[in-house]
From TrEMBL:
Component of the cytochrome c oxidase, the last enzyme in the mitochondrial electron transport chain which drives oxidative phosphorylation. The respiratory chain contains 3 multisubunit complexes succinate dehydrogenase (complex II, CII), ubiquinol-cytochrome c oxidoreductase (cytochrome b-c1 complex, complex III, CIII) and cytochrome c oxidase (complex IV, CIV), that cooperate to transfer electrons derived from NADH and succinate to molecular oxygen, creating an electrochemical gradient over the inner membrane that drives transmembrane transport and the ATP synthase. InterPro entries: CcO_II, CcO_II-like_C, CcO_II_C, Copper_CuA, Cupredoxin, Cyt_c_oxidase_su2, Cyt_c_oxidase_su2_TM_dom, Cyt_c_oxidase_su2_TM_sf. Its cofactor is Cu cation. It is found in: Mitochondrion inner membrane. One of its GO terms (biological process) is ATP synthesis coupled electron transport. The gene is COX2. Residues 92-225 form the Cytochrome oxidase subunit II copper A binding domain. Pfam families: COX2, COX2_TM. Keywords: Copper, Electron transport, Magnesium, Membrane, Metal-binding, Mitochondrion, Mitochondrion inner membrane, Respiratory chain, Translocase, Transmembrane, Transmembrane helix, Transport. It is a multi-pass membrane protein. This is Cytochrome c oxidase subunit 2. CDD domains: CcO_II_C (cd13912).
Length: 230
């Protein structure tokens, strides 16, 4: 999860997020090179009185500064489109979970099970256990099996919400009357935190998301206990 004074992204916990981090570094390097070149040209023009007659009117330079930006845009667009299609791929998910946003909590339904669902509320500060994070911990975590493709169906009951978990590279709007779909695979067991990312009212800041990825055997034990309690 994020920590104070952090400048970069959270550590990737899914293959898609790893691709997004690589694309971010790729695009940032291009921006850095362009900025350096432009700054150098500006400083050269300001500090020197010399003029080269070959750059006052030159067809070759005009061709270069027309073609070069197009090439740069292609170098940015192609990997971006690749990641967009990767994020839309949902092949044979092992588990489907429906997340519904409410004011101001999330409810989860494990649609592959007959009666497995629960509401997830933020734990108030005064009730937190040692080691829990303020404003991020919930009374019921969304538990998923690690290294398995998970399909998320996301909707809302009242107003616009957004289901976002940065470490997994997932962010999708929850819209009343509409069912949006996305997928993710957790690369390792762990606990990953997120929050509603669409302003949804007075308590918008108090509807966190906690995804706990566990080995498949532990997930089966957890689901069995939840079904017995239901």
């Amino acid at each position: 999860m994020a920590h104070p004074s952090q400048l970069g992204f959270q550590d990737a916990a899914s293959p898609v997020m790893e691709e997004l981090l690589h694309f971010h570094d790729h695009a940032l390097m291009i921006v850095f090179l362009i900025s350096t070149l432009v700054l150098y040209i500006i400083m050269a023009m300001v500090t020197t009185k010399l003029t080269n007659k070959n750059i006052i009117d030159s067809q070759e330079i005009e061709i270069i500064w027309t073609i070069l930006p197009a090439v740069i845009l292609i170098l940015i667009a192609l990997p971006s489109l690749r990641i967009l299609y990767l994020m839309d791929e949902i092949n044979d998910p092992h588990l489907t979970i429906k997340a519904v946003g409410h004011q101001w909590y999330w409810s989860y339904e494990y649609t592959d099970y007959e009666d497995l669902g629960f509401d997830s509320y933020m734990i108030p500060t005064q009730d937190l256990s040692p080691g829990h994070f303020r404003l991020l911990e919930t009374d019921h975590r969304m538990v998923v099996p690690a290294e398995s493709p998970i399909r998320m169906l996301i909707s809302a009951e009242d107003v616009l919400h957004s289901w976002a978990v940065p470490a997994l590279g997932v962010k999708l709007d929850a819209i009343p009357g509409r069912l949006n779909q996305t997928a993710f695979i957790t690369s390792r067991p762990g606990v990953f935190y997120g929050q509603c990312s669409e302003i949804c009212g007075a308590n918008h800041s108090f509807m966190p998301i906690v995804v706990e990825a566990v080995p498949l055997e532990h997930f089966e034990n957890w689901s069995s206990l939840m079904l017995k309690d239901a």
